[in-house]
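TL;DR need structure tokens for one chain.
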Amino acid sequence: MRPEKEAVVPNPAREPTFLPLTVAAAGEAGDEGAGAVRSSAESADQAAADCWLALVAGCTSGRQTLINRLHDLSEATSGYAGTRWWLGHGSVHRRRVAAAEHRIDDAVREGDGAEFAEAFIGYDQAVATVVVHVQNRLGKLST
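>> reply
TL;DR here they are.
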């Protein structure tokens, strides 16, 4: 009789996470738009973790998947914010999101792990800030 293998349950404390602020901010709203942002953030976060592991291993795989997922998250954020705000009063935030996304792309291209991590901090802050602004406009944050 062969012994059965125990299921390995991933420990979230050990899993790399790159978008904690965005996931948390989008999770608090609970509406459909925020749900789309959260879903995109979770997908981008997984792609970032995969890309990070490739960077640490000296590989270049996962770059295009990560860029696609970040673009999807930026688009979901734009949709949640609304075109009028995104192109008007929110344009400073739109530029921050785009610049941070570009910085991540550069870091992956260059294989620069430190820059990758720093760029993700900026991207996470930029996207989470937009989500919070939307929630404030909609009166969804509790005091």
